[in-house]
Amino acid sequence: MRVHLLKSEPIPLKTLMAEINGLAWPGAVPPEIETLGRLIARYRFNEAAAIVDTLLTSDEGDSR
After folding, report:
1. Neighbour-count burial for 22-41, b at 16+ CB within 10 Å, e otherwise
2. How confident is the model at residue 59 (pLDDT cuts 50, 70, 90)?
């Protein structure tokens, strides 16, 4: 996803978000995912990339 954000490619991004939204989440959809979808829909790719970076960084420390 990050590559498409950096290249400002809306069609692959919207396809990826549709796939993400179609996933079965164990609870409520995380707020970061909802925000990511809104930013992509508004073509605010730099802000969306920052959220992806935050999600990737936070996941690195998760040892589950």
Report:
1. eeeeeeeeeeebeebbebbe
2. low
**The CA-based dihedral angle spanning residues 64, 12, 20, 35, taken in that order and rounded to the nearest 10 degrees:** 90
Q: What CA–CA distance (Å, rounded) separates 20 from 23?
A: 5
3-state secondary structure 32-59: HHHHHHHHHHCCCHHHHHHHHHHHHHHH
Rounded Cα distance between 13 and 63, Å, is 28
pLDDT in tens, 20-40: 989 888 888 788 999 999 999
- In angstroms, the first-to-last Cα distance of the chain is 23
